User: Fold 3-dehydroquinate synthase from Methanolacinia petrolearia.
Amino acid sequence: MKLFWIDLREWDKDAATTAIESGADAIVAEKAAKVRELGLIKIISPDGDLVPGRDVYEVEITDKKSEEKAAELGKKGYVIVSTTDWTVIPLENLVAQSDRIIAAVSDEKEAETALGVLEGGVAGVLLKNSDPKVIKSVSSLVKKSGGKLELSVFTVKSVTSAGMGDRVCVDTCTMMHDGEGMAVGNTSSAFLLVHAETLENPYVSPRPFRVNAGAVHSYALVAGGKTSYLSEISAGDRVLIVNSAGETEEATVGRVKIEKRPLLLVEAEPEGGGAPISAVLQNAETIRLMREDGSAVSVIDLKPGDRILGRMEKGGRHFGHAIEETILEK
Assistant:
């Protein structure tokens, strides 16, 4: 997730309140006490959570030497960088060398440019503007810049009963929309997109905050490029919401429900050949995957030959982190 910081060293209580309400990740201030009176948020100050000159550095890019200095400091902590004429090239060079570059910006346009540098963009932005409207617009932009996954098309080979088992409903603090859900699979190397419960049906009301994600043993993609077993996800964790275009957004988990239900095993093969993948999901008409065109299809309507969306990953995980190791999962 990209970081959204705001510079309030020139103190503005209304701007600080707006920043907190808009979901800012941190406020840069002269003193932490004023910020703490307003709410719980990370503070960058001499007496704050992150200390300038120790955890966070600032560099104005004026020439190659200052650019090299910023890259070196990026090995120690976050580096807030600004440029005299707001050129993109120095940011590109720095992003190529460090994943802790924070670009100082003054408006939404500059933030959008920084977040798109070298496709992956900077780690975050520091907004130097106390206008509440600008704070809200930049915050919204940053929160939607969660990155993009390359999705793959899979052909369904079989859908069979998997008996009874424990399945997990992940209830998030985010209202999802049609075409959004979570990436879930039996292995850490391949995932299918399980649709959120956003659609109307004759049996139960929509639950747009929920993904009925699958059996307890399943892997799910979560925040920070990691995976988690569905059984280990709990309130306060951050999971990854993925849409049919591969765009991602982090969501906070509010509750997890584990209940015994009838299950189905969905097996599919990647387009163009390759090892088959699978997912164990609840056997119910409200459980849906995503078709190639992004529309939802119920698991009870799935047939061999149907084309569905998923994600291929490099196999091998240790406590959720990708590792270089030979692991066979099947």
Observations:
- The longest strand covers residues 248-270.
